[in-house]
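User: Structure tokens for both sequences below?

Assistant:
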Amino acid sequence: MIKAAYRMVGHNFNNDRIENDFYATPLDAIEDLIKYEKFDGKIWECSCGDGAISDPLIKAGYDVYSSDLIDRGYGEVKDFLTTNEKVDNIITNPPFNLATEFTLHGLNSINKKMALLCKLSFLEGKKRASVLFNQDKLKKL
């Protein structure tokens, strides 16, 4: 239970960073998203890594397009931040060092919903507050 709580806030137990900020999404996180949030239309997982988000979505019956900047053997190799495609939905766990950029670009790339699986500390910071949280686009639970 304690490790799960630390993981939710993005704690790195070994104090090591993986190149390109690749940390696979825990299965329980995407299972909970599928359980509590429904998506209509195609989903783009634009930072797909090894398919940790895409595979459970596909198994749940969603139409998923997967891409990543780095070839990890899953999805198409593509730099999401340089695309101009529009999709119904985006679900991703972006590299934390690019989470703000992914959010801003993602909001301009969707027709319906975007779900970002980020560390809780993503909600902090003056930069994100001024460019993200004043858009009245966040879901209120």
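Moving on to the next sequence.
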Amino acid sequence: MELTEITVTRMIPATPEEVYDVWVDPKSPGGPWHGAARLIVNPVVDGLFYFAVNHEGRVWPHYGRFVKLERPKLVEYTWMSEATKGAESTVTFTLEKQGGDTKVTLRHAGVPDDALGRQHKDGWEWILGALANALSKGR
């Protein structure tokens, strides 16, 4: 199976601390876990997560474990789903202060290089857009 890497970057109108806190808090609107149909998240190193999202008329489960948590600059976790064909991929979420904003770079490595795997890019862009919208409302 050929693998690829997806990178998405976005400026977020908030401090790195604010962005980090929303990203790891499953109750925060704009975070990747918010709005899941089913959810278990334990954001500590070696903590596990499971979340299921409703998309295109069906439920898509995702699961993995947190590898690195370095507030306010890095969150890294494994990621497995039907779209990764059950293979463990890695999501690295980095934050860099730029003026009053934060440059967020999300790198998803080890994704199958097929149509379903590449759809992760659209998903991550949507999630980072929701994050930016949620945090801009607080300003």
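User: Anything stand out in the second?

Assistant: Residues 30 and 134 are 5 Å apart (CA to CA).
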